[in-house]
Amino acid sequence: MTAPGRLTLPIETGLDDQLVGLLERLGADAVRNSDGTELPAIVGELAAKVYATYFVGRGDQEWADAHPSELTRSYLMSERTPALADGDLEIPLMAGWYALQVTPDLGCDVDRWWQVIDRTTGETLPPGTWRVSGEGADTVVTVTGAVAGHVYTVDFLAVQTWDPTQMYNYITNDWADDPSRIRESPFDVRHPATWEHVRSSLDGWLGDHPEVDVVRFTTFFYHFTLVFGPDAKERFVDWFGYSASVSVEAMEQFEEHLGYALTAEDFVDEGYYNSSFRVPTRAFRDWIDFQHRFVTDRVRQLVDAVHASGKEAMMFLGDNWIGTEPYGTLFASTGIDAVVGSVGSGATCRMISDIPGVRYTEGRLLPYFFPDVFHPGGDPVTEANASWLQARRAIVRSPLDRIGYGGYLSLALEHPDFVDRMEQIADEFRAIHDRGEGRRPASAPFRVAILNAWGRLRSWQTHMVAHALWYRQAYSYLGVLEALAGLPFEVDFLSFDDIRDGVPDGVGVLINAGALGTSFSGGSAWGAPRVQAAVRSFVAAGGGLVGVGDPTAHIDGGVTFQLADVLGVDRELGWGLSTNRPFDTVERHFITADLGAGLDVGEGTPDIVAFTRDVEVLAAGRGTVQAAASHYGEGRGVYLAGLPYSHENARLLHRALYWAAGRDSAFGEWIADDPRVEVAHYPESGQFVVLNNTDEHVRTTVRGGGDDWVVELDPYGHAWVETRELRR
């Protein structure tokens, strides 16, 4: 039996009679409140560390109402509006947005900070050719002299009148008719008066809450981009979005420090709002760095105040986290003790557990205790199982220090089967952590690097939305990250700037995975001769390149894939149909040896053709190559049309990486015969752990160190084996 601890439980008022027994049963050593709940009066009597949520940029509506000019701003774009005739064209700004959340900022210099654009020509219309009338939801921009057949938009600065997370909570929990719930407006610490208010408010709060051990900042100043449409449903969401971090003051300071001015279009980005899938512009990268410097400086001052009061500072990785990207260059300078984030998958777990510069990390497991899951007839156990199986793979590879839950405990208690499962998961987490001593198990003798436009800044964050949500068009690439989260590889994240002078030492295989034109494939970065030469030289000298989807894609020089010669395949766009490119599919190959029914490439990538004569096509369908392997000098290239996460695809990637690195002869150590089972080896302590990633009973053989072990595992089960005890 492992010692209790390493578990944070959300609590609330009204459960006093149950709390002591429940905390003891679950082994919880920390308690917390959640958005919308209060800590009960008995919290000081509980034998647990106390976390308290603290909102820096919202939660003081009296201040927000008294300082409307200091609320945070966003950049938004109107609907694309066609001119059906020459003359005046009226564009209603709020037709596509929720008027209770945002409203046009008519107090700024609209001639300077707004932009009216003829999207047909790309021309920005000068002030004087358009005018603003009305206010609030009825604000209209009238373009004079519009040209029939052209389409126009307005990029406008908007006031955020309702915090999007609190708004989401209102909608999800049906708080609209609850008079005790105050709608909260976010305010901007760029303004000196608001910053001084925030600082003094924290000092007062710290003095008023001696019972609190950990201040759980949820989070800081600027919310990720989350804007609702007129139907009060999410219209645009980008967990990495910075378009809600703007203000006139910030843009003026940006121009002063960097020497050039930003425009509304630098944020609106044709309506894409600099989505993480877009190849970032110079202006957007500069803005991220500019805000990172400002935010981390302010956060450091808040953390210093927390430490001076004898408490710990914890950051929630979500909500108002913009500017505190944990893989940013200055994040460690904040002095934050811990980061907690939502764990919905292996990749999101690694995103948290790999964060450098903090004393400990905590994963908030799903499901969240909200009525969208915890309702009569709901099935939170199934969601908990799915989340835990994916998270567990990553936890073994890169251990979290703690786990926890969030939401309303009263709802969870209405599902006793879920409470039972929560107890089992907590015990299993502690057992894994204790037996593995919080260390990483052995990894492959070479490093793997993901190559994209973002590099280290977005480590473990590619192709995803918050809480492990995914897009249909991107899950085939996100599967690469999800597989890697639990595979025995040390993983780096490199940008194209990182490889211009050569691939860093220690990297055995590069992975480039993404769709044509996206930041994750790289887009125009592949047009740089130095980038192409660096990767070619790396592979030719014995390295490996694994491409998924549209790797190295940049249409130029007669090819779509700039490294088609390395990968052995290219993508046909319709210009080369007159060229015959026959291929045969090989029947057996090391990479596909563990495939069962066939290769699953998810959405796949169409019209992939053989490019070199000696390419080995491993799988094909409907005349398009789905998987291929190629030799290139002393190195190797592998192509996959897609790789959604599954047990078999994780094994396929495992094999592909070893083959690409030229290490296929060493493959097979500390691996189970059954791809549904994964193994982590701890040579220092002479043991390994075996994970059953299914809901079925499994019997399999593990090979390692010259010995074989037959292991039987219960559904969802795991087992530790001493390598000194040869159990055949």
TrEMBL record:
Q: Where is the Lacto-N-biose phosphorylase C-terminal domain?
A: 670-720
Residues of the Lacto-N-biose phosphorylase-like N-terminal TIM barrel domain: 5-442
Which residue ranges does the record assign to the Lacto-N-biose phosphorylase central domain? Answer: 447-664
Give a yes or no for keyword Transferase in this entry. Answer: yes
Q: Which GO terms describe its molecular function?
A: 1,3-beta-galactosyl-N-acetylhexosamine phosphorylase activity
Report the Pfam families cross-referenced here.
Lact_bio_phlase, LBP_C, LBP_M
Instruction: Give the Enzyme Commission number.
Output: 2.4.1.211
Q: Which UniProt keywords apply?
A: Glycosyltransferase, Transferase
Q: Is the Glycosyltransferase keyword given for this protein?
A: yes
InterPro entries, sorted = Lact_bio_phlase-like_N, Lacto-N-biose_phosphorylase, LBP_C, LBP_M
User: What name does UniProt use for this protein?
Assistant: 1,3-beta-galactosyl-N-acetylhexosamine phosphorylase
Instruction: Give the species.
Output: Tessaracoccus palaemonis
